[in-house]
User: Fold this.
Amino acid sequence: MKLSYDLHLHSCLSPCGDAEMTPNNIVNMAALLGLDLIAVSDHNSALNLPAVFKAVSSVDLLVVPAIEACSSEEVHLLCLFETLDGALECSSIFRKALPPIRNKPEFFGEQQILNANDEWIGSEELLLINALSLNIKQVQDAVQSCGGMVIPAHVNKKAYSLLAVLGSIPEEYRFSCIEVNPPDNSLPFAGHRISDSDAHTLEQMQEPSHFIELPERSTKALLDTLCGRI
Assistant:
């Protein structure tokens, strides 16, 4: 089946995410736009995913558990998981790998943790946009141990991307998929390519423009396809 997707969205947990990017607003906007699959992928944390999963129960939409990790090389990596529990487990690993630098909301922005009713239940105190003490391979190992896969994020951007930092897509990492924003088929890569909005505001969320063929609408089918298992 052909399904529309956006696998790179930031909630108000990310300090760069707009306050209106609440779990319910994201889910309902995605449903209004007509998307089939979405992933809320906050920086180095999955703490808003439980609320997102509760919010999605009222609409016809599949949510893929996700985190956007920043490796010690300062490369952004989109991490997709088969289960919410796996994403939360990896989120705990990532938090321990964050430098002990507290967020300054007045400078970087709030890092809000919300419940399923979009009510404030806490804030992440450590600054989430810092690089982890884990290199790319260590991020891969952590994500895979939690039942997930790693996709280099926005590889053709001029900052925080694999090409900007390393100048290439090294074969040693055995990536089966890359994220290309904007789409670019000229990059030398034989695996899957996805393109996402990387939306930090509701206005940046896009109507269906990227599609993927899956045997069924499930997180497992998505990961199996992007990993080349099917």
Observations:
- The first helix runs from residue 23 to 33.
- Residues 81 and 150 are 9 Å apart (CA to CA).
- The chain is about 25% helix and 20% strand.
- The domain at 2-226 is CATH 3.20.20.140 (TIM Barrel).
